[in-house]
Amino acid sequence: MNLPNYDIHEDEFLKAIATRLGLSGKTWDVFLARFQDKNSNATNKDIAFYLEAELLEGTRDGSNPATILRDHLIAICDKFEAEGCDYQGSTKGKWKIAKRYLREVLYPDWVKQRRLIPLTCEQLWQELWGQATPTDKMRPILLNDKLQPVLLKPKLLGLEMGEAEIDETAPISIPLNSKIRLDINLEQAGYLLLLEKGTSGKLWCLCPSGFAPKWRHSGGTVTLPLASSRHRYFKLTGSTGWEEIVAVITPNLPKVETRHGASLLPKPGEPLLQLQEGHLTGLLDYLKDDRDCQLWQMAYQVTK
Question: How many domains does the chain have?
């Protein structure tokens, strides 16, 4: 992984880690000074001299800044050990091992969380998919030529009739070129954002869209396409493979924008919005700050 220049992000990164470790006061000051790259060759005595005023504040006369610094460094190194830093039995120079751990382990993780390295649509979708909970509250409804629901038969396991068992957890399989609707059973009133990854790998926003002009619902079962749409069904065209659906349900109107200020949400009646990296990044940023969202996932297989 080609990481962004550490020097550019060092101050922000160190302060973020200090906050994560719960450092404050003199321990915060010691951490920022000791772990800055520019001070790598400085001795602890040098750092203690540089921080003398801060270290001696509130202490008795005759206190030794170097001793105070050492005690805070011990506390910092203990914090790193709790984070997973392995000192391999070393008792001296532990801050140097912690600094290496900081750069080699924590910095790449922080870069990823801050999205300083652009992720692909597939990587962003997998992150969204991983945050969602599998549910039986979403399911495809197979339709016949008269657009009436057709019972999807459960799969049977075993070769002999006596050994056959219904597999309730088996994924749903639907033939290619079928007509379907989607049922989503909402537990409460809210806004429904429904996203799909098709068998081609392309990503689409199904709701809101021309298939779902209204996206606030009072709860209960919502069937897409909505009755208010000019569409009567979805048709499974393209190729065989897996369709993945993610539902985001929020009690309040979500403000989901790309970093350039473009809205994720299409206007009612517009064609399906094909999602790009910016849309998914904006949604993930929104979900990171919103604690009231429900996030569900469901997949089914499109077969010949």
Answer: 2
